[in-house]
Automatic annotation (TrEMBL):
Organism: Magallana gigas
Entries under PROSITE patterns matching the protein: ZINC_FINGER_C2H2_1, ZINC_FINGER_C2H2_2
One Gene Ontology molecular-function label: zinc ion binding
One Pfam family cited in the UniProt record for this chain: zf-C2H2_2
Gene3D superfamilies in alphabetical order: Classic Zinc Finger
UniProt keywords, alphabetically: Metal-binding, Zinc, Zinc-finger
Family: Belongs to the ZNF277 family.
Recorded coiled-coil stretches: none
Protein name, as recorded: C2H2-type domain-containing protein
PANTHER family: ZINC FINGER PROTEIN 277 (PTHR13267:SF3)
Residue intervals of the C2H2-type domain: 75-104
Amino acid sequence: ETETEDEESWEDWEEAGSQAVCLFCDFSSCMPHKLTAHMQELHDFDLKDVKLRLNLNFYQQIKLINFMRRQIYLGSCYGCGEKFTDKRVLVEHMHSQQHVDRFPEPSVWDQPQYFFPTYENDNLLCQLDDDEEDEVAGGRNQVIAEDLPSLNTILAQESVRKDILSGDIT
């Protein structure tokens, strides 16, 4: 086998238990690109587009997905609030009314309760990209200090620091 054939067979390999389920139907795949293509083609939903359009960070993506899953589980269209007893009818409504990527104000879904998945072991959450854009500021890694140094201490005096470092403390 050539290296290309090895890579292709590696890509086709599926690990049991790592299936991620579509937000709108029962389709699942352990390969993120297949699930993404499914949601784009069948449901007109592009998570990357939503992320960019709404300027979502990694944690907001998690909360939005958990919100969407919860609303669909409850049979509620998150685009308009209309309730349905049949998931298939709900998804058809969301398609026909173009509510698939119509979301309420962030104050509705950007809540701590949506850090917790609707479904245990929701592998779609594991497939999310924690893009470098979330971590990089101005071309450098962004560092946030836990404690800022206090400049109003005796250590601000250079002579004291020199004495401490030289061991000349009396």
